[in-house]
Amino acid sequence: MSRLIFLILAILFSLQFVFYPLNFISSSSQPLIKFSVSPVVSGSGSVHEPDQTELKHVVFGIAASAKFWKHRKDYVKLWWKPNGEMNGVVWLDQHINQNDNVSKTLPPIRISSDTSRFQYRYPKGLRSAIRITRIVSETVRLLNGTELEKNVRWIVMGDDDTVFFPENLVKVLRKYDHNQFYYIGSSSESHIQNLKFSYGMAYGGGGFAISYPLAKALEKMQDRCIQRYSELYGSDDRIHACMSELGVPLTKEVGFHQIDLYGKLLGLLSAHPLAPLVSIHHLDLVDPVFPNMGRVNAMRRFMVPAKLDSPSLAQQSICYDADHRWTVSVSWGYTVQIIRGVLSAREMVIPTRTFIDWYKQADERSYAFNTRPIAKSACQRPRVYYLSNALPDLALRRTASEYVRWYDMWEPECDWDMSDPSEFERVIVYKKPDPDRWNKHRAPRRDCCRVLPTTKNGTMVIDVGACKDDEFAEFLVK
């Protein structure tokens, strides 16, 4: 009977791809994905160590304001798991109409305590920085003596316009002993921001995690500490100042993304660092992650592959189509890019500057990581295919994701005597989920991809998965 059910589901899955609408170019703000999906478990299953950190051990403190909550709560809904699966509090500056908060799909709301006794001397800054910097301490006080506190291992701070990928966050936290003092996060993408504040500071919008023993130590001294730093600008540099007094350095995890950038995240997310994608911030300031969509709906689409294989989200693999002499880059769950000619893996792993920095500069010295310019040659401009759908193939215990070509307004002609990737309108990527990808006992490595033969006109088919013995991103001349 179970085999019959699997067969029926597999047939339905195939029909979805046969009849799925491909009008991505003129897509409206409505998401193409209109159904929920369940994770596909790999054949070997995930390695579960006894007493390892789970979501139930994490408490979120979300900084929000009454002014923006009505809009930004939609970002929180994207990643928050209701019905007691997650623990956390939204901290507001003042009371709101309770109709603006749907308790079943959002964390509970609390009002931050009065901070008028604290001095704030940064010119033209916002006093709200003091309120926000105390959220970790206020969350500890809220937990103090409760039954929930017995299971708390980590306090995670974020903003109301931060989207977390909770499963990936947990993967990161499992690497560390929660009984020790840990302060985990990442710096800004903009070099000048880090010079102005610190490369050793966790930026609050990208989110940061503090082990619970450290959070309790912070709570005991923070009010005295922040009185000594009235001249600082923000909430996160006040946290950093107190961490410095406690003698705790930043443990950097590059999957936390402050996104001190403007423009398109295409270059960054298509060549994401080899680390779990933990968070994305400043979603109201950058372009939607998928073009021609609203920001919330674009992120809603991005969460669909995250439900299928969160550890692999935006992980890059590089391969070559030897028949056409093309370079292929897959950012799983986000984009496929096809480029004429052979570009080395060393070049492809560097993000393209499809964005500008926080100070609206675009030269290579503006960023806190290596970048490369957009190709000047029209012939080497990538053909970009954005995710339009992702589904579980239950029969073969894998995922299938579809990527549809995005047509830029300006596409100059190429005079190379070489096949044009534009002959392909869509790309199908097959991949087995890899729940153990970020296991602390396993060295990080990019997946390999393989361009598969196909008889479907206008469609490229790619297999992505763990590299086989002696397999790597090598161009083989036929």
TrEMBL record:
GO cellular component annotations of the record: endoplasmic reticulum
Single GO term (MF): transferase activity
Database matches in InterPro entries: DUF604
Keywords: Transferase
UniProt protein name: Glycosyltransferase
Taxonomic lineage: Eukaryota, Viridiplantae, Streptophyta, Embryophyta, Tracheophyta
